[in-house]
Design a protein that fits this description.
- By secondary structure, this protein is mainly alpha-helical.
- Helix content is 77%, strand content 0%.
- It has two domains: 65 residues, Arc Repressor Mutant, subunit A (Orthogonal Bundle), CATH 1.10.10; 152 residues, Tetracycline Repressor, domain 2.
- The protein is globular, with a radius of gyration of 22 Å.
Length: 220
């Protein structure tokens, strides 16, 4: 006779391998993100990734294949995180001005909190986006934020708050670039101009400047 407890145990077993696999994949991706952001694709070592994830190399290859395939998986996961965070901004629920302020502030703050995002992009650009071009997921991940920004711009036009004919993709790239260049070149800019651009006051001034620049461009 099979007891209810035995039935419950039997029902739980099929889910355990799935949960274990998800935890293993997550551990590998986390370790690989640290390794690739610190050493780039060329300098990263599978041995170190496996050690950080507390698995053997065979397991790593089982889940992700070669090192370049793992690098692509890291890039996709990195982009997925920022796109998911962008969706939480509720840009369509506030005024067009506030939507743009939120997007500028979010981009700046996200880059500050996630320096690995910048270093991974720098690394992939060395390869002319060779890995991202193979991604089947990337374009679908990127399109929602551009579509949302297009709606914000259209509403701003209708209300007379924004100029006509602004390309949402160009605007998004400009917002990203204003943060990206300042942060990725912070050490060299500080050395060249003899001014510490990493202090809290300098960062607050930078965010205020970027917001004013973008909103100033959008005015009719």
């Amino acid at each position: 006779m099979v007891t209810p407890a035995a039935n419950a145990s039997t029902r739980a077993r099929p889910n355990r391998p799935t949960r274990d696999a998800e935890r293993t994949r997550a551990a590998i991706l986390d370790a690989a993100t640290q390794e690739f952001s610190r050493h780039g694709l060329g300098g990263a070592r599978v041995d170190r990734i496996a050690a950080k994830a507390d698995i053997n190399k065979r397991m790593l290859y089982h889940y992700f294949g070669a090192k370049e395939a793992l690098f692509l998986a890291v890039l996709e996961a990195t982009y997925a995180r920022i796109r998911t965070a962008e969706l939480s901004l509720s840009l369509l629920d506030v005024s067009p001005d506030e939507s743009v302020r939120r997007l500028v502030t979010f981009t700046w703050t996200y880059y500050l909190k996630h320096p690995e995002f910048l270093t991974l992009l720098n690394s992939e650009n060395l390869y002319r986006a060779r890995h991202l071009k193979r991604s089947r997921r990337l374009r679908a991940m990127n399109s929602p934020v551009i579509d949302t920004l297009a709606q914000v711009l259209a509403r701003g036009e209708r209300e007379g708050a924004f100029r006509r004919g602004v390309d949402p993709l160009q605007l998004y790239v400009s917002i990203a670039a204003l943060s990206y260049f300042y942060l990725s070149n912070n050490h060299t800019l500080s050395a060249i101009f003899g001014r510490d651009l990493s202090t809290p006051n300098a960062r607050r001034a930078r965010l205020a400047h970027m917001t004013a620049v973008v909103l100033g461009y959008l005015r009719p």
